[in-house]
Amino acid sequence: MTDSSTQAPVAPRRPYSFTRHGITVSDDYAWLKDARWQEVLHDPSLLDADIRAYLEAENAYAESVLGHTAPLQKKLVAEMRGRIKEDDSSVPSPDGPYAYFRKYREGGQHELFCRTPRNGGAETIGLDGDALARGHEYFKFGGSRHSHDHKLAAWSADTKGSEYFTIRVRDWDGGNDLVDLVEETDGGVVWSRDCKSFFYVKLDDNHRPMQVWRHKLGTNQSDDLLVYEEKDTGWFTHVHESTSGRFCVIAGGDHETSEQRLIDLDHPDAPPRLVAARENGVQYSIADRGDELLILTNADGAIDFKIVTAPLAAPERINWRDLIPHRAGIYVLDHDLYAGHLVRLERANALPSIVIRDLESGEEHAIAFDEGAYSLDAMGSYEFDTTNLRFAYSSMTTPSEVWDYDMVTRARTLRKRQEIPSGHNPADYVTTRIMAKADDGAEVPVSLLHRRDFKADGAAPLLLYGYGSYGHAMPASFSTNRLSLVDRGFVYAIAHIRGGTDKGWGWYLDGKREKKTNGFDDFAACARALITANYTSAKRIVGHGGSAGGMLMGAVANRAGELFAGIVAEVPFVDVLNTMLDDSLPLTPPEWPEWGNPIESEADFRTILSYSPYDNVAAKPYPAILAMAGLTDPRVTYWEPAKWIARLRATMTGGGPVVLRTNMGAGHGGASGRFNRLDEVAIAYAFALWAVGLADRSA
Questions:
Q1: Could you tell me where the DSSP H helices lie in 83-229?
Q2: Dihedral sign for Cα atoms in the order 395, 396, 398, 400
Q3: What is the C-alpha to C-alpha distance for residues 662 and 571, in angstroms, rounded to an integer?
């Protein structure tokens, strides 16, 4: 299967160990972390020569292992691209005299930000992503926000993959950028009402969003005003516009606690006003309407969250009053507020619903759907005084649909259905759900997609996808890319494991910190349940996950590798202990509530050491493994998968091969551009097909 002329690289062992809490840990591949990693994020050319040579040798080996699948990769890309409507556009969203939308041009890689007169007419292209990306190996929009007078647009972009976004200001009519240049931001912008200044968050040298600044148009960034500074390095800070548009909301928090402040956009010089002081373990987010706040919170033991009201003039905790009381097992994900209606997105048993409340009468109704597994999301609006709610719906068989819904008359209007140019018949596919029983009795939902002519005889290959961290649920939504596997006989499965909020906030709490391994065991239980139900067989399953889901892949490879033919780990967070011990890394202090703080706590140290994939590589056979990394990734640094693959190759007693592919010009999200990204998806899918013996048959 491999080109024998290219040998698997052998990373030199450079003995290194450290002792913490009386426990000594060896880390012979620590040298793969560049001592100047912060500088490398800004300028990848500064990467240490030895490290670069090793990463390039790994890339050459990956090419030798998977090079024979090049025709298949090319075919997969053509298929996936054939399902993309190349000149696609979003449904225009009205705001005052205009309606704003995004679109792509035929063959274009990047978005165009556009508008038309509200009731129709000639479109104006404000930002042309294809033109702006020229000359950059990497280009990604951070966003765009038009000013309240509709004359300007503040927009941001990252040109290195390091997620440092530069903000510029464009004149809608002239099509030119003003002199303003605001660098090293998180990309978000909130305009003042007079359109003479905007608020933004600046990232520090460790890539942490700690400061909120105000920039006045026509001035240098060095003259900007510091509005707020967070002192806790474990907290992240962001800004957004409030639901009514009256306030800039400064939202801070970690994974367990939050705090918000308001700046009156009519008085941008006024200091931020605190809503409610932070209390450990209490989270909240605000929506405003007139002289009242509606607050989504887990206060008072509301594990699955509730909605309270508070007077805008006195919003502290003591004045909170329940509006939507806590209901165990019904998780309130989000809330949005309009002049006359409260909209909340709820989830129970891994199925979402939208509930609308008339704020005058208190009457409620839900928008209902029939499929056994589906994805649902409210899309928000520029306008506050409207009865129109826009939402998106899809399932694993049903392409995405955008609907407008009148919250008073309850009339639905289909505004857009995702087009599949190469054709798609939902009736050819089946989406269903099974429950897998974990070792401790927990019932874990598994969403499934397969062709209607599929036979449950255990012969089919199966891709099992999982994440299970930070409370992120995995929606059973439509993906055109998956069809390239399903049409080749794969069953596609999503494991809704603990660590996500698929079954409520308690489901998340049962899969974090000292309970982290529940999620790993859930994933293995899902694999076994799928085998028992004859959807597949052992050694016919390919595991797939990215980032924290890549950590899941590493842990499962260690704990239940015998079930898998292959594992795809994209930007995998596999060096958990070392990363959580390095408080200079961008995400480490904010991540301690999720994983534990091994610097301060011996118990946390021992817990993380017990499952960290890199630290638990064992002398045993492993399935074939593909690890994919990005050199400028500030979230999961490139050296994590590099160290993991090096230790695997030096330790495992059989199986494999294990390969590392590092994108030397991208970060956490992989390649930029909607078509370039398909190249990386095709590599992962070609590997999956190869791992189960179907690559040559599929080319």
A1: 129-133
A2: positive
A3: 9
Query: Dihedral through CA 492, CA 496, CA 499, CA 501, nearest 10?
Result: 130
Tokens of 84: 């993309």
Q: What are phi and psi of 92, to 5 degrees?
A: -55, 140
What does the alpha-carbon distance between residue 695 and residue 68 come to, in Å, rounded to a whole number?
9
C-alpha triplet 118, 121, 124: angle, nearest 5°: 85
Please give the Cα distance from 154 to 146 (Å, whole number): 6
Which DSSP category does 539 fall into? T
Cβ distance 174 to 246 under 8 Å? no
How high is the pLDDT of residue 163? 85
* Residue in 146, 341, 496, 668 annotated catalytic: 668
Return the DSSP state at 32: G
Question: Sign of the CA dihedral 687, 690, 696, 698?
Answer: negative
- Cβ atoms of residues 104 and 88 within 8 Å: yes
d(CA 273, CA 601): 35
The residue annotated as part of the active site, out of 547, 612, 672, 698, is: 547
| Mean pLDDT estimate for the chain | 93
Q: Could you confirm whether 668 is annotated as catalytic?
A: yes
Residues paired with residue 354 on neighbouring β-strands, in sequence order: 345, 367
| Cβ pair 514, 429 in contact under 8 A | no
Amino acid residing at 21 = H
Instruction: Establish whether 633 is a catalytic residue.
Output: yes
Question: Directed axis angle between helix 639-651 and helix 49-66, to 10°?
Answer: 60
Instruction: Identify which of 608, 468, 610, 456 has the alpha carbon closest to the alpha carbon of residue 525.
Output: 468
Side-chain-side CA neighbours of residue 112 (13 Å): 20
Amino acid occupying residue 667: G
Q: Per-residue pLDDT averaged across 648-662, rounded?
A: 96
Side chain identity at 129, as an amino acid letter?
A: G
Closest CA to 514 of 591, 607, 594: 607
pLDDT at 160: 83
Q: Which of 88, 575, 604, 633 is catalytic?
A: 633
Q: At 403, list the tokens.
A: 């609907």
Say how far apart CA 359 and CA 339 lie, in whole Å.
9
Question: What does the pLDDT look like over 338-394, one tens digit per residue?
Answer: 999 999 999 887 788 999 999 999 999 998 787 777 889 999 899 999 999 999 999
Nearest to 627 by CA among 597, 603, 661: 661
Sequence letter at residue 635? R
Residue 441's Cα: distance from chain center in Å? 29
Residue 574 has pLDDT above 90, yes or no: yes
CB 194 within 8 A of CB 221: no
